[in-house]
TrEMBL record:
<dbReference type="InterPro" id="IPR036986">
    <property type="entry name" value="S4_RNA-bd_sf"/>
</dbReference>
<keyword id="KW-0694">RNA-binding</keyword>
<dbReference type="Pfam" id="PF13275">
    <property type="entry name" value="S4_2"/>
</dbReference>
<dbReference type="GO" id="GO:0003723">
    <property type="term" value="F:RNA binding"/>
</dbReference>
<protein>
    <submittedName>
        <fullName>RNA-binding S4 domain-containing protein</fullName>
    </submittedName>
</protein>
């Protein structure tokens, strides 16, 4: 299943991207998902909410309803 690409301007952190891409509802849900090990960046579990994402990174969240994800597209 192809994931949507989300356009961002400049630098974005993992927690912010989860909200921007509508993968979580709010910052609290982002924090819980990341701390629980339910978020991966490029196939690797990422537990740092402040992890800086790069152009082309694939972020996937293991939600109760199944996997959801989005790819980062950085616009300079």
């Amino acid at each position: 299943m192809p994931y949507p690409t989300i356009l961002v301007r400049g630098e974005i952190k993992l927690g912010q991207f989860l909200k921007l891409a509508d993968l979580v509802e709010d910052g609290a849900e982002a924090r819980i998902a990341i701390q629980s090990g339910d978020v991966s960046v490029n196939g690797e579990v990422e537990r740092r909410r402040g992890h800086r994402l790069s152009d082309g990174d694939l972020v996937v969240v293991d939600l109760p309803a199944g996997l959801a994800g989005a790819r980062v597209r950085v616009e300079p």
